[in-house]
Each structure stands twice: as C-alpha cells, then as structure tokens.
Input
Amino acid sequence: MTSDDLAFATIAEIAARYRRRALSPVELTRALLGRIERLDPTLHAFVTVTAEGALADARHAEAALRRDEDGNPLLGIPVAYKDIYATRGIRTTAGSAVLADWVPEDDATCVTRLARAGCVMLGKLITHEFAFGLQFPGHRFQPAKNPWSLEHMPGGSSSGSAAALAAGLAHGALGSDTGGSIRGPAAFCNIVGLKPTYGRVSRAGVITLSWTLDHTGPMARTVEDCALLLQALAGHDPADPASSREPVADYLVPLGQGIRGLRVGVPRAYFFEGVDAEVEKAFEEALATLRDLGATVTDVEIPSIQTSWAFLAILMAEAFAYHERDVRGHPELYGDVLRERLLAGGLILGSEYVQAQRLRSRLQAEMLGVLRRTDVLVTPTTPKPAPTFAAVWDPSFGFPKSNMAPFNMTGLPALAVPCGFSAQGLPLSLQIAGRPFDESTVLRLGHAYEQATEWHGRRPRI
Output
C-alpha cells in the first residue's frame, strides 16, 4: 500500500494487516505523524499533537501483537479526540482562551475505554469554542479547514475531528453532538458520524454544553469503523448521571445481514424546507438505492416536528447555566459571538424553558409512535452543502435550520453517511435515525447503502 492508501485504509483493513505482520502500529503511527506535520499547518485540525505518547502507545500495541495476546480489532489503531474530552496530563482547551492552559488530572471515560481497547492517541482536535462558537478572525485558536475546499467550513462543532478524518490524518475520532455536531461535520467532510442514543455512550469528562442534549460518539470514514469504535465505547458509566444500563448489542454482526424487508420512513415536512436542489436530488437517488437493496420506503408524518425549534431555548438556557460564572467574571476570555450567545441564553425565562421541554416530550412520543410502524427514518443530513467561512462570518448568518436537532431533542440514534457531491465538489449526506438503543439497525442500513455506492471512497485533493 502507498502512504496515501495507508492513511485512508479502514480500521478493519489495518487490523488485518497488523495480524498478517504486513504492517506495524509503529510504522503506521510514524506515517500519520509525518502526514500531520505536512498537512495540518494548512488544515488546523489539531490543537495538540502527542507524538511521543502516540509512539509509546504504538510500541505497546506492537508488543501485544507480537505476543498474540490481544484480539481487539482496535489494538494499534490511531485515533484523536475532540478537545473537549479531558485527557490526563494533556491540555484540553475546548477551543477557548478560558481553558487555554487547562491540564486535566483524569481522562474522560471514552478516552479510557479506547485506551483499554489498545488505540493509539495522536492528539487533540480543534472544536468550535466550547462546542458552540466558531472561531472568528483574531481568535486565539484558528478554525479547522475543510479538506474538500479550504474556503468552506468543515462543519461544527466537531470540526477538527471531521477534517482530520477526511484528510487521512487519523483512522478514528470522537466528537460530541448537541444539535448536530457529529453529523454536520461528517456531512460536510464526506465521512461517517454516529450520534448514539442519549445515554448509550458516557459523557463523563467531556465539557458540557447542554446537559439534556449532549451526546458523545464516534466518527470515522466507514460505517463499519464507527461500529467498531462504538463497540468499545458503549455501556453504562456510573460517572455519567444520564448513562443507561441498557445492554450493549453486537454492532458488527448485523452489518452483513442486508436490508431486505426493512421499513424506511421519510418525514418530508420540516426536513425538506429550504433544501438545496442538489441535496434533494442526491437524497432521492439514495432512496432509490435503498429500494433496490430491498427496503420498503414510505413517507411518514410527525405532527409536532416544527416544534423542533424549541431545542434552541433548551440549548441556550442550559449553556448559560453552565457558563454563567465564567462569562460574567471573565467575559473578555470568550469569543465575541460565543459570549453573545451565552448571555442571550440568560434572557430565556424559566417558563419558556419548561414549555420547550413540554414540546420536546410531545415530539418524543410522536417519533416513537412513527418508529413503531417503521424501522428507521431517513432525511438529508443538512439542507445545504458546506457554507463558506465568509458566509458564516457575516453577522446576518444567524442560526441556520438544522435537520439534525430533532434527534437530539428525542435522543434517538442518528447516523450521517456520504451520499453524493454537489456541482462544486462539496460532499452531501444521508441521515438515518432509529429507535432508542437500536444503533444496530441504523448502522446496518447505513452500511448496506455505503457498500452499494462509492461516495465514501473518494478522497480530497489537499
């Protein structure tokens, strides 16, 4: 394999090469560190590169492979973490001057679980400031660039995670998703991102944005790779009050079962408002592929779907509650846009917050009702391809409509999978959501679609 082939190989391919002694974790880690050194000065995906630690992890994995003592498919796989995941002894900035020099004393649970699985930690990846505010010109931290077009955003807030994967700088990454922050960057960068069910993956040690909306989850270049990462991450954690005791499924075996007979529901109201024509065309072609694979596709209705906008009231009120002391005491340390957003959250009345949560409960009940008649819901992940930085930096840009937030409101698992490209060469994406804790079916459908198409195999010219 060429160095580029290694950089873009799947986790499963790398694991197989390790066990055939055709590749070693140290060789791969050195190759990726060299690639990061060459490309990241342009992409700004990494905040911190932990080269010495990565090589130590790789040597440990290599020794385990030589002893044939560990059959874990993640052993020796290079990964990196969104910089809101606490890492013991390694600074964790949240992309903000507020925490620019913070060095945690403990690892986040997800970091611990991937380390136990044998992953090699390459470093920490830039995030929008506190997962909520894009870094504008003059900010202490530079924003990540989209490898498909440096003038366009890679999405947010897991921007560095998506950019690193799209550029072949890591083989897996972790993101967080409060209103689409795993799936949006996945959509804009032609990778795969999974927001698991609320409570499926621990948030302990991950900096909070919104207690009732935050999710953590894996990002990778294929559905199978996301499934491999999820298998290591999922499970109860007493350190996270929202963590579920629901048994962990096998996420890999169902991938090979096909989707003949699966019932796919398409909720068009809300999700197709303002959708770009190229996005809609790619989505309809994706539906045709699902039909060809044997799925039954029907339109469905979610009566309260328009109340999804209530997520903003919940998000902003909870974000203000988390940041109130710091944003009042040291407002100058926050970026201008994030500071304004947080302070605006302080204007939301308690009665408005309660009403938003009531609307949320109704939406949850309706979605569960629809999912009793269908196995999954599919929509475009984003209404439009990635915007330019110039467009987003315009003060009039505001909060764009999100096709992803409804699944944060309801806590349902949702997956973003590549499904095409715009005429400008920008990635397009399909969103698949399912029943609570039924990540297996969501991944199964996503894998079947992915394997029937070629979009995920394309690489950007960097």
The domain at 3-457 is CATH 3.90.1300.10 (Amidase signature (AS) enzymes). The chain has a mean pLDDT of 97. The two ends are 19 Å apart (CA to CA). The chain is about 40% helix and 15% strand.
